[in-house]
Design a protein that fits this description.
The chain is α/β, with parallel strands linked by helices. It contains 5 helices and 10 strands, in the order ααβββββββααββαβ. The protein has a single domain, classed as Sandwich (Immunoglobulin-like), CATH 2.60.40. Strands 1, 3, 4, 6, 7, 8, 9 and 10 form an 8-stranded mixed beta sheet that branches. Strands 2-5 form a two-stranded antiparallel sheet. A hairpin with a 3-residue loop joins strand 6 and strand 7.
Length: 211
């Protein structure tokens, strides 16, 4: 038997020997995670990956309802869920071959903070106003999602970031303009606020748009 055939045989054996839990894990993008904020009174979309044709059951703690979705042939799935008025914390449970429980979810206002250097500036640029604000910035009703700088020639399915409750640590490197906007919005509305910061100084508009 040739070396290539031996390799192929071993590869097939290793795949068939994998436990079902290895092959069928549900996976979510980082923006759908613990501590996230979903837009109130809306049809919010959940999406992710699993085994092709796998059926996934989604249970929402705010109404106790369970819905399901079946993954497509390329292992992707998406489903729209109805969100209630502002409130929380809630959980979302996704169950297939494995189970994921998203915890400490709030429902409120979600805003994307994007732009160039005036939006990007943060404590990392030693802005005195935000440095003085940071020790008193703790507010679990405001959640921050700070998109890291990265480039790609192709659209990306996921990114390296996570939702965090607002506070001195999570505010490091986060948009100062975005933070003050969210703080003012919370003072006005008294509901949870989710802020997604995706800003990069000096970038032309063309690099933010598809070709």
């Amino acid at each position: 038997m040739s070396t290539s055939r031996i390799f192929l045989f071993c590869l097939l054996c290793s795949i068939t020997a994998m436990p079902a839990s290895t092959l069928a894990n549900i996976r979510l993008p980082s923006v759908l995670a613990d501590n996230m904020v979903l837009q109130r009174n809306s049809e919010s979309q959940l999406w992710g990956w699993s085994n092709p044709a796998e059926k996934i059951f989604i249970t929402l703690s705010w109404n106790g309802k369970t819905d399901s979705v079946t993954a497509s042939g390329d292992a992707r799935w998406s489903i729209k869920i109805s969100t209630p008025a502002a409130g929380g914390p809630y959980t979302i449970t996704l169950k297939g071959q494995n189970t994921i429980v998203l915890k400490n979810i709030l429902i409120g206002e979600v805003w994307v903070c994007s732009g160039q250097s005036n939006m990007e500036w943060s404590s990392l640029q030693n802005l005195q106003e935000i440095l003085a604000e940071m020790p008193k910035s703790a507010n679990p009703a405001i959640r921050l999602f700070n998109v890291q700088k990265a480039t790609s020639d192709n659209p990306q399915d996921d990114l390296d970031a996570n939702w965090q409750e607002c506070g001195p640590e999570s505010l490091k490197g986060f948009s100062a303009v975005g933070y003050y906007f969210g703080k003012k919005l919370y003072e006005k509305l008294k509901i949870p606020i989710g802020l997604i910061n995706s800003s990069w100084g000096g970038t032309p508009a063309e690099v933010w748009a598809p070709e």
